Amino acid sequence: MQAYEPGVLKRDGANYRHREHDSLVYVTSRDFWYWNSRGKRINALDYLIEIRGYDFSEAVTRLTGEALPRASPYRPQSIPKPHRPAKLYLPWPKKCATGYFGYLQKRGISATVIQRCRDLGLLYEGRYKPKKEEKKYIPVCVFVGTDDAGKPKYACMRGMYEDLKKDVYGSDKSYSFCLPPEKPHSSQVAVFEAPIDALSHATLQELEGWKWNGYRLSLGGTSHVALFAFLERHPEIKRVTLYMDNDLAGLKNARKIKAMLRENPSFKHIRVGINPPREGKDYNEKLMSKLQLLQNLPQRRREKRAAISI
């Protein structure tokens, strides 16, 4: 990589990270590549085929530096099939599901926001089996990302009772979870690290009555891939606000994305703002803090009145 694609790697602690594919990490201690967004290891051949778009013979030729030997006339060489993206296999939906509704409400998400996501086909309760040999299924919230025609292209799972955060196999980060505006033709997009933060932002607007209309896009992590692909599909966007987590990694990543947008000639016209939550690490923690404050407010008023009467 350093010899043939100089500058594409960057140091990330003891490891290396790919500048174009932020979820692709070279683990130096174990001497292998790991593709976090796909949840799998890859080797040099996989890299050239799946990321750089070479067919099999071209990839082998590039690795060995030699042309492949011609096939024997008696044993003709089969023509390699062109590489196709992995098919998206969505988790099975649970019938008569109500658990995900209660789980999200415990996280502070309003019933109106949950209902809207469900009606748009962006949210449902699924069943996920971590290992094939296991019989146990884990109930998960499934957040779906679709293309312009409404076809699912991406999905991520969040365990309702277990600590599980995982992209579904075959997900395309270019079509990450996105809650569209209630009124069409919006020129604004709010960017979050996770779908629950996007739904928390929508709930806060409902609680506080903001007059804001725009897209709410989840990056599905910290990679800029989902945002750049979204902006390419939506040239009408003029304002991007980065609502990343209020920690070192989130603030650093927000500044990095802002710089990348400014450096890209296609996006120089876009105004970019950074707005981390002032309370809590992310917007879900901010929402929970707000709800706790509203819940305690009547009790404080009663205590104050009682003190005055005494």
Mean pLDDT: 85
Rg for CA atoms: 23 Å
Biggest sheet, strands in spatial order? 1-2-3-4-5
Q: What structural category characterises the helix and strand content?
A: alpha+beta
The low-confidence parts are: 71-83, 304-310
Percent helix among the residues? Answer: 25-40%
* CATH class division of the domain at 92-290: Alpha Beta
Shape call? globular
Separation of termini?
Answer: 77 Å
Largest sheet, if any? 5 strands, antiparallel
- What is the succession of H and E elements? EEEEEHHEHHEEEEEEHEHEHEH
- Counting DSSP H or I runs of 4 or more residues, the number of helices is 8
Describe what you observe in this structure.
Helix content is 32%, strand content 21%. It is α+β, with helices and mostly antiparallel strands and 310 residues long. The protein has a domain of 199 residues: Dna Topoisomerase Vi A Subunit, Chain: A, domain 2. The strands form 3 sheets. Strands 1-2-3-4-5 form a 5-stranded antiparallel beta sheet. A 5-stranded antiparallel beta sheet has the order 6-7-8-9-10. Strand 1 and strand 2 form a beta hairpin. Helix 1 packs across helix 2 and helix 5 runs parallel beside helix 8. The radius of gyration is 23 Å and the shape is globular.
In short:
This protein has helices at residues 44-51, 56-64, 99-106, 111-119, 195-208, 225-233, 248-263, 283-309; strands at residues 9-12, 15-18, 24-27, 32-35, 40-42, 92-93, 123-128, 138-146, 152-159, 165-167, 178-179, 188-192, 215-218, 239-242, 271-274. The protein has 310 residues and is an alpha+beta fold.
Which secondary structure elements does this structure contain, and how are they paired or packed?
Elements (H helix, E strand, L loop, with lengths): L8 E4 L2 E4 L5 E4 L4 E4 L4 E3 L1 H8 L4 H9 L27 E2 L5 H8 L4 H9 L3 E6 L9 E9 L5 E8 L5 E3 L10 E2 L8 E5 L2 H14 L6 E4 L6 H9 L5 E4 L5 H16 L7 E4 L8 H27 L1
Parallel strand pairs: 12-13, 12-14, 14-15
Antiparallel strand pairs: 1-2, 2-3, 3-4, 4-5, 6-7, 7-8, 8-9, 9-10, 11-13
